[in-house]
Predict the structure.
Amino acid sequence: MNVVSYRPAPEELSFTFGGRPAVRRVAPGTVLEIYTEDCFGGLVRTVDDLPSKVCEFPYLNPVTGPFHVEGAEPGDTLALHFVSIRPARDWAVSTTFPHFGALTGTHTTAMLQPALEEVVWMYEVDTETGTVRYRARRGDFTVEMPLDPMHGTVGVAPGASEARMTITPDAHGGNMDTPELRAGVTVYLGVNVPGGLFAVGDGHCRQGHGEVCGTAVEAAMNTVVAVELIKGAVTPWPRLEDDEHLMSTGSARPLEDAYRISQHDMVTWAASLAGLDELDAYQLVSQGGEAPVGNVCDTNYTMLAKMPKRYLGRPEVYEGAHTRLRALGEQYLGGR
Amino acid sequence: MNVVSYRPAPEELSFTFGGRPAVRRVAPGTVLEIYTEDCFGGLVRTVDDLPSKVCEFPYLNPVTGPFHVEGAEPGDTLALHFVSIRPARDWAVSTTFPHFGALTGTHTTAMLQPALEEVVWMYEVDTETGTVRYRARRGDFTVEMPLDPMHGTVGVAPGASEARMTITPDAHGGNMDTPELRAGVTVYLGVNVPGGLFAVGDGHCRQGHGEVCGTAVEAAMNTVVAVELIKGAVTPWPRLEDDEHLMSTGSARPLEDAYRISQHDMVTWAASLAGLDELDAYQLVSQGGEAPVGNVCDTNYTMLAKMPKRYLGRPEVYEGAHTRLRALGEQYLGGR
Amino acid sequence: MNVVSYRPAPEELSFTFGGRPAVRRVAPGTVLEIYTEDCFGGLVRTVDDLPSKVCEFPYLNPVTGPFHVEGAEPGDTLALHFVSIRPARDWAVSTTFPHFGALTGTHTTAMLQPALEEVVWMYEVDTETGTVRYRARRGDFTVEMPLDPMHGTVGVAPGASEARMTITPDAHGGNMDTPELRAGVTVYLGVNVPGGLFAVGDGHCRQGHGEVCGTAVEAAMNTVVAVELIKGAVTPWPRLEDDEHLMSTGSARPLEDAYRISQHDMVTWAASLAGLDELDAYQLVSQGGEAPVGNVCDTNYTMLAKMPKRYLGRPEVYEGAHTRLRALGEQYLGGR
Amino acid sequence: MNVVSYRPAPEELSFTFGGRPAVRRVAPGTVLEIYTEDCFGGLVRTVDDLPSKVCEFPYLNPVTGPFHVEGAEPGDTLALHFVSIRPARDWAVSTTFPHFGALTGTHTTAMLQPALEEVVWMYEVDTETGTVRYRARRGDFTVEMPLDPMHGTVGVAPGASEARMTITPDAHGGNMDTPELRAGVTVYLGVNVPGGLFAVGDGHCRQGHGEVCGTAVEAAMNTVVAVELIKGAVTPWPRLEDDEHLMSTGSARPLEDAYRISQHDMVTWAASLAGLDELDAYQLVSQGGEAPVGNVCDTNYTMLAKMPKRYLGRPEVYEGAHTRLRALGEQYLGGR
């Protein structure tokens, strides 16, 4: 088994997709062990570390990478299987942030009202019990919620010679902030530039739907990703696969366009997978599909279209990459 | 037990919330047995019954009611507990409809492209096995999906002397089209006019998230609703409660506003229920909340904010109406 | 000349389109002299009269009417020519209003930020010099701007048995808040119910584009409207005509849908008027058309598509109603 | 007078803002003579040259530049005064383009309807009479419209190490597609990187409001720009100044956010220029301001807030750059 470990030095962190050379080259079939820093660059460590004070724009939401996948060319697809996502510390953090979040005026939803107060919440992370503990800042209310680790940000270099802040999700991936991107899931990303140049970051111990306040339970992560390359497979928007579901993503504004993109991709994909007429697929997805919300706070919003494989006759997609990568991941975990 | 049965004659069906006198008066505590017609008025019965041919605008999406609840005054809240929702026939129907649905130009998202083809799909409904059967119109693909009956439309007369088509969801309820509105759930609706004047319709055997093609697996229903009145309780937008969750709804355009309304209501409601500061509640809902999509096809879009009660210390809401109505419903079902 | 005068008693003011009987019947060809109260019902008369204190929801934005036009049937079109719009007082008023306006969170763009301060501005209206005078509330800045009287609200009873608050613009007209609706302009409204039931209100001494703070320079008006009925002419959305332009309106959310509706109507109308292929008309409107913003603050936003008649070969529309009504108006003004 | 001429070779055209080295360095005070190619790279020359056939994505909407302005640093502002914009040929071109434009489904407003037909319209450009001639493709309808040359695209390198396709307008400028950007106007752009790196392209002989079909009357241009640098002046979004008006731009989706950004910038700018309280400025802009639509078809939509200087006491902005550059431009034109 080809295992590569990579832990970025602080100056190696990346803040864009595109516009950066690769930090490593990996061959298809590689199992990649990486460390990802939290969205604050690890600088918010107490309730007194206000992000607007300790962080410097645009050095937010660092990603680990980019990684050049050998042989990847435009028109191919990268398959990234998340073997495991484990919090790197016994604490995590969430905050409000001035003019960021769904229930406040923002840079673009510009308003004359003053910003909401900037507040930091520290969470205790217990990987033994599989929980995170919330504590109110005012009063003594506290509650445990299940640990459900995920990555908010995964993507490749965009096409058209663009470079995009990691905070922005779009057709190249980026900060989609969907809880569906957890261990056991394979992400498919269309390749736009030689090597693909994928990167991963923004670990969350858990996240509500839409990340309404703008941040999740943010944490550094030790993450294992198994990488494959599917030659000649075009993927217009990032797709996900778990054992039971296929998923399409869409990232845009307004939110209905994110919904439209994801459902349109699922309908046309389902039609091709099940040999259905397009309107027949439209009908089937309309009755059988789910629509998990990713984020409703970033520079583009993200929604998913999620379809049980059994409603489509359990088709094999991407040459069975998920099954193979899942097996590779289990072999890796068994061997440790 | 006070049980009232009502099956509307065709001319008694209603097509607006508001602007209509009550068909019956019911006392709080009543168990109401009703029949609801499907969204096509029962007129689409074969694949050749194109809705644009057999239905006449605006006589679409009929509701059963309105019902006057004795003693209900503006500033009160109606609690409607759905005891059971059973398909009235062994078939159901879904269609595309010209310029309606999320993946087509519409009346307001006006486009020069011609309409999608109008197509009807008939479903077999098997209440024994708890399934509906989809059949492609072109080719022989077929699949069973679980029966999960719900009502797309429930609401009261709006305030401000308005009357609204039943197709439109807003603060008074209406065509929210959320699969969360199933048997076992209590819906809370703020009263705007004396008697509240609630009505119910648009039964679905099941529905995907967002009702992307514009219609669900549409069916006439035999439905049992247990009714209570909570005096002096203001409900700004419809709320739902099941055994484990509290839910707020929002209906608006663009879709992010539906999200904002529902999350804003959940945050402020959670703050008041758990004695939390508003920003503390914002944080808690951000990490613990879900956001089920209702519809992304109607004249307003609908989203829900859904919060596990256990994250809020299992507060009693609306004087425990859900628990009481659930018990009343079980008593009713046991007595049959 | 058939001249009808009507000044509503306070209890005769109407707050919805639809759901109200006519206050008068008028024959086509009538010149109607009406008084309209300002959007605050005349209750905000000093800077200390905060709207949230002196006004009572939903008794806002009163309209004068509705008027039943004899012979009007669904499928016809009313032509309302604004002969003159004169401020009824030597003062006018504007305000911020809690959670209303484009640069604040609102009922639907729900935010956790506190409301902006509620402030009243009084304007001096000088009909001799044709100016209104703005005075800052803090400091001594003052400036004169041209008087440009208009009506924010004009509409008919909606179809489908609906009744809508006067604050809401939609296919029936309503609170479109466009400065294009000034004296010399003819408004065309599709008839949905017998008699049409049109009403007029919400006079503005002038208004910026979009009414960004939520209110204009609000004033009671003495207004003269000449009325015609065009039988068998369908008008899907309100249209306007002045001596040099044709205009289509659209009212919806998000704002791009208001744009789409108005442009779609103009493209298809232009195609039919100039005998153009639809794509040829799309091209011509794309290069020759304007897009005045109505409101970006109401429950639906409003935009107009405005096309010089000369680019379309100066077609006659609605049987030349504008020319006839304009002549009638001049005759009326000459005779006083 | 320091005059620099630059005509890009085809391989020197740029398709992004950011991510490219400067083609020239210019000193503040320079008068720059440039040639800009049309949005199709000059490849659509007859009605048979369908853009989807003769153009290759992403090589669309080329800009001339970028130009490095000596001494420009982040936190400064570039002032670009358009001295003259003259069509370089006696023809211009417009087209529909598959899944692009306001009245069709697009990449993000994803729909299942087939694309509109791709059609090319050729325009005759007569600089003597100052007209362009439209000819319908089907039938013999033709009409002259005034020539009103403008640039759709002007911007600088974005911040945060981003590179953006020239088609996208945002805080760095880009493809704003506003007819206000004509000769006699000064554009202010905030500097994000050393040298600013501005570029100009996408000439239009004229354009309707919103560019509803997706393209204007597209033309290569010979354009003269006078350049200044204002040190220490922060410009959050592109601003424009003509002799009588100040203008702020906003580019975002949905369209109301473009409106909000532009109005927010104008309100806060006006407050600072006229020494007004922010709510007083909100009121003044609400009654005195205009809101010209830029584009409603690009990847972000653009709107402007436009305020007569006389309503603000004719303040000097950006150290009087517009007046100086206008004089420089006149001197240049006089000297030819």
Q: What stands out?
A: Residues 255-274 of chain C form the longest helix (20 residues).
